[in-house]
């Protein structure tokens, strides 16, 4: 088979491309921004401040042969990144992203037709035009949506409920325009209609597609991996009652990640018993942040290599997302030896063994989350065993396992679509 992996941004697309390259199935990996000598990305990196320069130079994958990495619309891809990361430019982010996604998609569709690709894998939120153009130019090519997030149409239904109940956090929810903007909603509908099959990061993602009447027969579930070397394990010992437990949240601090429920769950928890450290970009209002108790720390963004130290110094991870495809943050927490409490709308709930390495609580339920926080405070002696169980679960979820499973899943999906077409 000849399979093209395409992503106008990045996410875990390098991983899927490597999986297919190892299986000798990769025709090309297509993207916009990629660091290599004498291209626009490398020139831009030279003038960026250190934090962003490190991110720019990291947009490269040593396991992919340069000859198979094809850049299209590089300038547009850089414009999208600048709009996303520079506050005064964010107002143009979604408009520019749509333009770049569509130009990129048309070029990749032409490449698929030219090479006679058996399949094109692209990602949710940026595939509508690409898949439609593939259908027009190369109707024999199978289109596969790699669903890194849950179905945006399902998420909209969840966010609407939350908006009605938590209006003070509504601005945070609306920051993800793709879920709310009628233009993007229509694009999601087109994308789902033009996809022949779906590679899902979790059973939650598969379930969310059912909201749009897409059955499991069109899906393959393939969990992502975690780099256990970058996230080493530290054996825990029982903390004395005189020391507060450290709960950590890792991700964007916004309502789509369940911020309201996270903060409410911590209300009234004595600082002597527990503290909460939130690591990630803060997307809540200044007034809400200012009103948080002293035992909640908003640490903000840190470099990825700093995350491991923060996790090793924590006791438990909390992740009450309203909808998360398969959080790599949770896998990093498991790898570091953190029991996890997450919502049932979190894909990594697939890996939680109740009471052994964590707990799953109902989505949008602060009381259930608080109950589990208090449980850990009252059962400190259980944490060392749960830490060992947390580490154990990720040993079977390495990226090498993902590479094997993803290649097999994509190949099976292509064969299945072809058989149905006969």
Automatic annotation (TrEMBL):
It comes from the Bacteria. SUPFAM superfamilies: UDP-Glycosyltransferase/glycogen phosphorylase (SSF53756). Pfam families: Glycos_transf_1. InterPro entries: Glyco_trans_1, Glycosyltransferase_grp1. GO terms for molecular function: glycosyltransferase activity. Residues 239-382 form the Glycosyl transferase family domain. Keywords: Transferase. The keyword Translocase does not apply. PANTHER family: SULFOQUINOVOSYL TRANSFERASE SQD2 (PTHR45947:SF3). This is Glycosyltransferase. It comes from Senegalimassilia faecalis.
């Amino acid at each position: 088979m000849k399979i093209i992996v395409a992503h106008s941004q990045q996410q875990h697309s390098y991983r899927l491309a490597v999986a297919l390259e190892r299986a000798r199935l990769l025709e090309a990996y297509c993207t916009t921004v990629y660091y290599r000598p004498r291209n626009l990305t490398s020139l831009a990196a030279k003038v960026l401040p250190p934090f962003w320069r490190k991110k720019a130079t990291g947009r490269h994958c040593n396991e992919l042969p340069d000859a198979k990495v094809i850049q299209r619309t590089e300038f547009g891809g850089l414009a999208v990144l600048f709009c996303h990361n520079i506050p005064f430019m964010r107002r143009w982010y979604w408009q520019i992203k749509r333009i770049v996604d569509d130009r990129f998609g048309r070029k990749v569709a032409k490449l698929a037709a030219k090479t006679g690709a058996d399949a094109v894998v692209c990602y949710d939120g940026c595939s509508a035009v690409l898949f439609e153009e593939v259908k027009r130019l190369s109707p024999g090519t199978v289109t596969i949506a790699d669903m890194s997030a849950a179905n945006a149409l399902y998420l909209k239904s969840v966010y609407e409920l939350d908006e009605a109940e938590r209006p003070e956090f509504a601005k945070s929810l609306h920051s993800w325009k793709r879920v709310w903007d009628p233009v993007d909603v229509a694009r999601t509908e087109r994308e789902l209609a033009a996809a022949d099959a779906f590679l899902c990061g979790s059973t939650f993602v598969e379930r969310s597609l059912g909201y749009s009447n897409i059955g499991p027969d069109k899906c393959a579930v393939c969990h992502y991996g975690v780099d256990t070397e970058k996230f080493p394990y530290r054996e825990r010992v029982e903390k004395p009652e005189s020391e507060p437990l450290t709960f950590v949240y890792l991700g964007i601090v916004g309502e789509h990640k369940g911020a309201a429920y996270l903060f409410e769950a911590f209300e009234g928890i004595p600082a002597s018993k527990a503290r909460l450290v939130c690591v990630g970009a803060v997307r809540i209002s200044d007034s809400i942040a200012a009103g948080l108790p002293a035992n909640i720390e908003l640490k903000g963004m840190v470099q990825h290599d700093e995350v491991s130290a923060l996790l090793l110094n924590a006791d438990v991870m909390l992740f009450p997302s309203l909808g998360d495809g398969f959080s790599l943050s949770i896998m990093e927490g498991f790898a570091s030896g953190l029991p996890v409490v997450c919502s049932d709308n979190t894909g990594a709930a697939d890996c939680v063994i109740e009471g052994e390495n964590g707990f799953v609580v109902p989505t949008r339920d602060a009381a259930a989350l608080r109950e589990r926080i208090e449980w850990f405070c009252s059962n400190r002696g259980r944490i060392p065993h749960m830490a060992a169980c947390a580490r154990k679960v990720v040993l079977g979820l390495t990226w090498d396992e993902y590479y094997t499973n993803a290649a097999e899943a994509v190949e099976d999906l292509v064969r299945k679509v072809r058989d149905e077409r006969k």
